[in-house]
Amino acid sequence: MPAEAPTVTGISPKEGPPGTRVTIRGQHFGNSPRDLMGLTICGCNCLLSAEWVSPNKIIARSGPANCKGDIIVMTRQGGIGASTVQFRGYMETVGPLKESAVWVEEEISNWGRRAMSTTAMQQQDPLGLSVEDSSKSLPDDQMNQYFPHPSSESLSSEDFVPARFLLKNHHGTSFDDLKAGLSHLQRKVGAHKEGQLSFLKANVGAVMDQLDTLCVLRDKFEQDALQVRMMPTVRLEQSIEDSRREADRLFKEVLNRRENADATRNALSAMQRNKFLFLLPTSIEKNSIKGDYDLIVNDYTRAKSLFSDSDIEIFKRVFEEVDKRIDSLISRLKTQLTTMPCTLEDQKKLARNLASLDGDNNHAWNAIEARYNYLLESLTAPPEKPPENSNNALSPSSKLGGGQNWQGELPIKIQTVEDCLEVFSFQFPELWKLGQSYFSGELQVEASSGHNKSFRDIILRSIKMLCEIVKENLTMPVGTLTPKHKNSNKNSTDFGPWLPQCLTEVVFLYKSLCGLDLPSDALALINNLIQDLRFHCLLVIMKQTSEQVRMLYKQETWVHDLPSATLPGKQSGGLVTALPSLFESKVTDAVTLLKESIFVHIPGETTVNPILANPSVHSQYGSLAQSIFQGFVQTLEHLSSSKEVMSATPMFLSQILTSSLPPTRQSGNRKLPSENPQLIILSNCLYTRDIVLPSVMKSLASLTGDQETPPLLLARETAVNLLSDLDKQLCEKYLESKTDPLVGTIEPSMYIGEFDWAKLPERSVIERGDLRPYIKEILANLISVNCEVQNVLPSQCRRLLSYIVEMIAEEVSRLMTCIPNFNDEGVLQAHIDLAFLRKTLSPFCTPTAKYDFSPSHPDSV
């Protein structure tokens, strides 16, 4: 609720000459002396002599006013008040015994020794008319223009001019009244003449006696002159002169002492009355040391108004000394005003004091320029090296952890950005507030019209400087130089862990600047910086994630204690390692970090994700997502082609039974699983395509709000194609590693022991039901492969075994067609072997395999 305006309801006394002690009563005069901002009596500023007593009482001395006017009080909360009463000030003639509030120069005074009565000072109007109110009379300046020669309206003056008298006292009187006044004056003069004549007639006897006495005295004087032969007055004059010389001789020393005493007493009295002036130089020095410049300004203003125009020599000398002290103080205040660092309140106080002391309006603008230059110097100064284990530096985001030295020393470029943002967030608001105080008149100076544009340029240049520094240190290409130091061989992508925090600091700065009521173009510069940093942060984080995903093969432990989920219609259900989960967590962490940094809402934004609302950025976001998927595919390819995986020799059941190696293999520094690592990689690939990829796409789409955007659809399609192609490659590589050794053992097993199909002896019925060893070895090897696939990836068992069975059928068919002759027992044995294979392997037989196993095959037996 705003404070009420002060109101003056009573004064005591109601009139008086300059310097009258006036007691002012009213309401809402403030709660302390600091609340009293102004006081005028009859238009004269009386703040220097004002004494705040209470919220309802103020004591002050009236100024040099010769009129009747209001008493106006101004307070800090209530502003300019009103008055229901008026004070009348008048100018008073000061006599030798009259007390005065100002110095009266005695040398030019023409006071007589005879006291004048009050009636003698008052003149009645000679026309017998009432004198008009002084407020209606013409001003003296205008009267002097009408009468340029020496003239006066006073009846007792030698320069009395009747026309001036009439203009001064009766310029508003009607002509008829003036005619009546002239008749009155004529009657008065006639009565005065008649009064003299009647006086002589009434006292003619006494007058004659006086004349006779004067004649007798003249005769006696002439007789004495004849007898003495000299004039009596000469002797009298000589006697008086002798008496004076004797008196001077007797009382000269006494009179000298008296004169000295009077002079000393007058001097002490003058010093006592004006000790404020004589003590002012010392007071200035003491208050200057204490920093109480407001008191110095008040004392100097008071002394200047009282003694600056004085012609008294002692006052001139003292005031010259005061001026010297003030000039020295002004010089010191100018230095303090432009010396940084300096608080905003101290600068404002110094600017106000300088404006009051010398009246120069440029001090406030010099303070603004000094603070602006200090801001630029602070922004371009080299950053200080942070102390070890400092907790004040920006901390890298743990969600992008695992970098080179992200947990070590803070990069110098990040330290530079942090220092600049901290300096700008502290100093720029003070620069803006100082400028607003200058233009609003708070610094008690009148702002120059040309400074509005200059200050606007200062604000824009300051913000542009900050934006350039942030961009140069966060997005600078390798090999260039910043204004402060050389690039330390770091690409901007190496700053990935610190970029989100830097962006957060810039957003916080923008929010704080929005509360300063800055121009829209100034805020637009910071907004553009935020958008650029958002885009840069998006690129860096996505590229960093892509690089980390590409290096995930280093974190493969081959521990498959994470069974995959089974979704309807999906090729899953096998064993997987932690690699797909690591891939998903990397993408999820990156998306979360992007949400917490670049998608933080700032004032004035109307869209949720303004950065991705840009089609080109959205398209690039989809391309970055594709690079992440490509990175994971490259990780799987790297694992599948690594030496440790390739060195894992395929083992069949017959080899395992006769091998002395344990089921777990050792390669390098990592322990390979007992299962075939190629199958595990294949299982990871299928699990990623069917289970992880939809979850990752959902996470990526959470930034755009829609999974069906063309860039994300293209990214998902690319990921599916890449994983499907990798699936084919892994299957071919695995089948190649299994089929070639298995097929290669069939022919040696068929002719083991120099077996000949044309010389097979006749056997009993029971012996004829037995199978050849090569059939048993084929089945044993297929069982080994089946067990291996079932243990790792059961969903792919039919797919993989069907291809192997087809290769076996082709090889068996080829071998059968290469046999030159069969006897009856050989034909029967071949039919038994093929029928058994066809029957046993029917779940995995393709049409081609069934054809090759068929006895009706034209090339078979």
Automatic annotation (TrEMBL):
Record domain IPT/TIG: where: 6-87
Pfam families xrefs: Sec5 (PF15469), TIG (PF01833)
Biased composition (Polar residues): 388-398
Region annotation (Disordered) ranges: 380-402
CDD domains: IPT_PCSR (cd00603)
GO CC list: exocyst
Keywords: Exocytosis, Protein transport, Transport
GO biological process: cell development; exocytosis; Golgi to plasma membrane transport; protein transport; system development
Domain Exocyst complex component EXOC2/Sec5 N-terminal: 124-850
PANTHER family with a match to the protein in the record: EXOCYST COMPLEX COMPONENT 2 (PTHR13043:SF1), EXOCYST COMPLEX COMPONENT SEC5 (PTHR13043)
Purpose of the protein: Component of the exocyst complex involved in the docking of exocytic vesicles with fusion sites on the plasma membrane.
Stated family: Belongs to the SEC5 family.
Subunit structure, interactors included: Component of the exocyst complex.
Protein name: Exocyst complex component 2
